[in-house]
Design goal:
The chain is mostly beta strands. Helix content is 0%, strand content 48%. It is built from no helices and eleven strands. Strand 5 and strand 6 form a beta hairpin.
Length: 126
């Protein structure tokens, strides 16, 4: 059973930066694509970014390109999300997820991911 644990969330002023971490353990790590999703109060969960198992390809929500960067350290079984120039509308619970069978066509589909972390709260004040 895979386990994903996020950390690094918190309260930050608009324009600031945060780096989220997701520590992965269990049977599914190195061979899995990893992604970040977020869910704001009253809204559906939305795709943020994804990275393939090799780290060779990354994908981003169009609205977040240029501000967010996803990366992974396979040796540490971890994936990261660097968030810069944060805005109040970035306030949400951020969760990491993994999937073994990756298809770039369905990269944003919540239902395609096999395992999820509990999430970490990010709050951006204006």
């Amino acid at each position: 059973q895979a386990q994903l644990v996020e950390s690094g969330g918190g309260l930050v002023q608009a324009g600031g930066s945060l780096r989220l971490s997701c520590a992965a353990s269990g049977r599914i790590v190195s061979g899995s694509a990893m992604a970040w999703f977020r869910q704001a109060p009253g809204k559906e969960r939305e795709f943020v970014a994804a990275i393939t198992s090799s780290g060779g390809s990354t994908y981003y929500a169009d609205s977040l390109k240029g501000r967010f960067t996803i990366s992974r350290d396979s040796a540490k079984n971890a994936v990261y999300l660097q968030m810069n120039s944060l805005k109040p509308e970035d306030t949400a619970v951020y969760s990491c997820a993994s999937r073994i069978f990756f298809n770039s066509v369905t990269v944003m589909d919540v239902g395609r991911y096999d395992y999820w972390g509990q999430g970490t709260q990010v709050t951006v004040s204006s």
